[in-house]
Amino acid sequence: MSTSIQFQTLLNGTISAFKTVFSDKVTIQSPTMSNDSHVSLELGVLISVIGDVRGRLIIDGTPATFSKIGESMYGMQLEGEMLESFVGEFGNIIGGKICIFSSEKNIDLDITPPTVMVGHTQLSGFTKTIRMPISLLDFGNIHLLLAIDE
């Protein structure tokens, strides 16, 4: 499977996942390709994708944005360790929906347990990435980064 098809599958699955979770409250902006090998985060989750496509999915946002999302889902404000746990679970929700989308396209995917990154974190080692800003009405903005392992 070519790299462009892999990127497209993960991108379409990600768009579908966010639209399923947030319905009409999501605006997904145009993705951009980057050769930047560094990523800086404030609060985020990294999920590795394995199977027919191998790569990494990183969802980056602010504590305030993730807290608002968590409060809308659980009916209470999340902070501290509960917020960090929620960010990991949020990554599982999106990753799981990407796997479902992909299986409907006859692509076998699985996800690894989430790695939550707290504080200003810098990641490196990516060769090709797609960055996609996502605006969530009433919640704020998050950024998605897809890195495909070749």
From TrEMBL:
- Coiled-coil ranges (or none): none
Q: Residue limits of the Chemotaxis phosphatase CheX-like domain?
A: 45-119
* InterPro entries cross-referenced by the UniProt entry: CheC-like_sf, CheX-like, CheX-like_dom
Q: Which organism is it from?
A: Kurthia sibirica
Highest taxon, organism lineage: Bacteria
For this UniProt record, give its keywords in alphabetical order, as a comma-separated list.
Answer: Chemotaxis
In Swiss-Prot or TrEMBL terms, this protein is called Chemotaxis protein CheX
> Which residues constitute the signal peptide according to the record?
none
Q: What is the lineage of its organism?
A: Bacteria, Bacillati, Bacillota, Bacilli, Bacillales
Which CDD domains would you find in this protein's record? CheX (cd17906)
Q: A Pfam family this protein belongs to?
A: CheX
Instruction: Choose any GO biological process term that the UniProt entry carries and state it.
Output: chemotaxis
